[in-house]
Specification:
The structure is a single chain. With about 210 residues, the chain is an alpha/beta fold. About 30% of the residues lie in helices and about 25% in strands. The strands form two sheets. It has a six-stranded mixed beta sheet with strand order 6-7-8-3-9-10, with helices on both faces. Strands 2-1-4-5 form a four-stranded antiparallel beta sheet, with helices on one face. The N terminus is likely disordered.
Length: about 210
């Protein structure tokens, strides 16, 4: 996938190439443009310039239904649309799924993504409302069940991204670092390393 974007206040001069089936972690300070990647891919807003290519196809040339059928997102605060669910699965669900915890709604999104067998999976703070044990279980499920899926993971728990093939560090809508975790952590001047230190995470560099 190749993303080229110049979207004011969202992504600015954002250019990189992600290989098929690659697992990419996305990090950055609040407002750096992390969640905007998902907004852009799903075309929740249309770009005002540049291009976004998936397998060489500009996503603007693809119908929204077709595009979104190939993408799945597990958001930080999922909303359940349940107009067709009364009495199904023998579960009562109130408007927006508010009788489920955020963590439970996130688990439902994980299950949905598993069933859809999508080509691109976006995890936007997907385990933010889960305890560490459930987080670890979900991360293992993602690793084993989405092996053939290009996965973009935004996470506040930086250590969960260290198993990624590469990590993208964003700052004010720009990619400032994009490399393997081991190379970034071995670089004493890297932003990822400084973020890990600031978060109190123990740095472990693997060859």
């Amino acid at each position: 996938m190749r993303y080229q974007q110049n979207l004011p206040l969202v992504l600015n001069r954002f250019t990189c190439c992600i290989r098929p089936k690659e697992k990419v972690g996305i990090v950055g300070r609040t407002g750096s443009g992390k969640s905007s990647v998902g907004v852009l891919l799903l075309r929740l807003v249309e770009r005002c310039g540049g291009s976004v290519l998936i397998d060489g196809v500009d996503i603007s040339d693809v119908g929204l239904a077709d595009l979104r059928s190939k993408l799945s997102i597990i958001p930080q605060d999922p909303v359940l649309f349940v107009s067709q669910l009364p009495l199904k699965l023998e579960s009562e669900v109130v408007e927006n799924g508010e009788n489920f915890s955020v963590g439970e709604r996130q688990l439902l999104c994980v299950a949905r993504a598993l069933l859809r067998r999508c080509k691109v999976l976006i995890l936007d703070e997907a385990t933010a409302s889960m305890d560490a044990e459930t987080d670890a279980l979900i991360q293992e499920t993602i690793r084993s069940s989405f092996q053939d899926c290009t996965t973009l993971t935004i996470a506040h728990r930086l250590h969960t991204l260290l198993a990624s093939d590469r990590i993208m560090v964003l700052n004010q809508g720009q990619v400032v670092e994009f490399d393997t975790p081991s190379r970034l952590l071995a670089n004493e001047n890297s932003r990822l390393r400084s973020m890990m230190v600031a978060a109190g995470n123990k740095i472990s560099v693997r060859g």
